[in-house]
């Protein structure tokens, strides 16, 4: 049952973004590869994390965990895999595709990460599954929207700054998202929920914008 609970929010997110891509659907093979690339990132992120611990021994803190070992390693890895998957691929033929593949890669990672957390003998269980279903998994999907949005702009509007923003924006919001959750100060719930609302508003606005300017709309 825990495995199903870990998968449910992932597949809801994948279904939603697939439905929103209404003018020119992506091939199933590419969508599967996007999900598979996201799953692959889990192993790379784990290996890099172990390497960082050996090279730079450290005491875990909310700042280090949020900005380096979590958002830093995860978003760099997802960014590299996403670029390798779509940048020179002919199926990346409209800006919205950046968001579609960004979400598939991000939720591929979130799927495996969620299984690890909810089945953990100490941290796992139903409460973990439900809390992550509403916060962590959607969070990864929203970070993927930000990454894919700016990558789509970089590809089709030749904006070098967008290529940088495709990494920097999801990295920053991911780091802040985790930091507000990990810090023990109760008043940090205020900026956390402000960030949460902004992420949803921004993601829905980005999707609507790129659907509207799709070259396949007519």
From TrEMBL:
One GO term (biological process): proteolysis
Location of the protein in the cell: Cell membrane
InterPro entries recorded: Peptidase_PrsW_arch/bac, PrsW
Residue ranges of the TM segments: 30-52, 64-87, 99-117, 129-151, 163-180, 186-204
Source organism superkingdom: Bacteria
Topological type in the membrane: Multi-pass membrane protein
Record key words, sorted: Cell membrane, Hydrolase, Membrane, Protease, Transmembrane, Transmembrane helix
GO cellular component, as recorded: plasma membrane
GO molecular function, one term: peptidase activity
Annotated family: Belongs to the protease PrsW family.
Protein name: Protease PrsW
Organism: Anaerotignum propionicum DSM 1682
Gene name per UniProt: prsW
């Amino acid at each position: 049952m825990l495995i199903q609970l870990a998968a449910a929010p992932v597949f809801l997110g994948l279904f939603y973004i697939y439905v929103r891509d209404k003018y020119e659907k992506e091939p199933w093979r590419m969508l599967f590869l996007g999900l598979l690339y996201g799953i692959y990132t889990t192993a790379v992120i784990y290996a890099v994390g172990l390497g960082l611990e050996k090279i730079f021994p450290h005491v875990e803190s909310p700042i280090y965990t949020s900005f380096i070992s979590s958002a830093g390693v995860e978003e760099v890895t997802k960014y590299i895999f996403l670029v390798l998957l779509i940048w020179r691929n002919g199926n990346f033929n409209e800006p919205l595709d950046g968001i579609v593949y960004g979400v598939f890669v991000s939720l591929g990672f979130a799927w495996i990460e969620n299984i690890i957390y909810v089945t953990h003998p100490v941290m796992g269980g139903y409460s973990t599954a439900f809390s992550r279903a509403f916060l962590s998994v959607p969070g990864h999907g929203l970070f993927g929207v930000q990454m894919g949005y700016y990558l789509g702009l970089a590809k089709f509007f030749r904006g070098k700054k967008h290529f940088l923003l495709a990494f920097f924006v999801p990295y920053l919001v991911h780091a802040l998202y985790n930091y507000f959750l990990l810090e023990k100060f109760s008043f940090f719930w205020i900026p956390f929920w402000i960030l949460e609302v902004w992420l949803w508003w921004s993601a829905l606005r980005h999707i609507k914008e790129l659907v509207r300017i799709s070259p396949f709309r007519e």
